[in-house]
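**Paired protein data**
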Amino acid sequence: MQLYGSNTSPYARRIRMFCARHNLNVDYLHLDIFSDQGKAVLVANNPARKIPFLVDGEHTICDSGAVYRYLTEKFNFSKMTYWQENQLTNINACNDSLVELLLCERSGFDTQSDTLFFNLQRERTEAVLTDLNEQCVKTDFLDCDYLQISLYCLLDWIIFRSLAELAPYNALLDFYEVHKSLPGSTHSDPRI
């Protein structure tokens, strides 16, 4: 199996860390999606042009959520409860909003302007971080390694990209400190 992703993608990183946590033999291939060669590989495997994607023989699985489900079924791991899936949906929503803001900022837009799109992304980010600050200490959250990994990757990516102020979220900051040593976290650090 080969996992294609970007070294700075929090979505690719969570799959890399999940594989490390479970000692899965999955080769990771960094893909520069902005280079001609990398873009060609991306387009050939995923018309949505998103990373990560997993190639397992004749199967190509796109999107971190689908890759997670594929690995869970292939290796017979426990599935998430609906409550846990809802938490993952919130993590993804926050991540997606921050990706949109980062891309817009890099495209020259003033993401701090009082416009509908930017306001909605900032509101979603704040609402989700506030909710996750309450949820991340619950047993049902802490019992799911993929939720822990996904939240850690989100928080580390926020810090890495300086995308949001985390000081108001004490439980999230505590969670981040406790989970810095998750398997694969050092090897997949986007700063190296």
In short: The chain has a mean pLDDT of 97. The first strand starts at residue 2 and ends at 5.
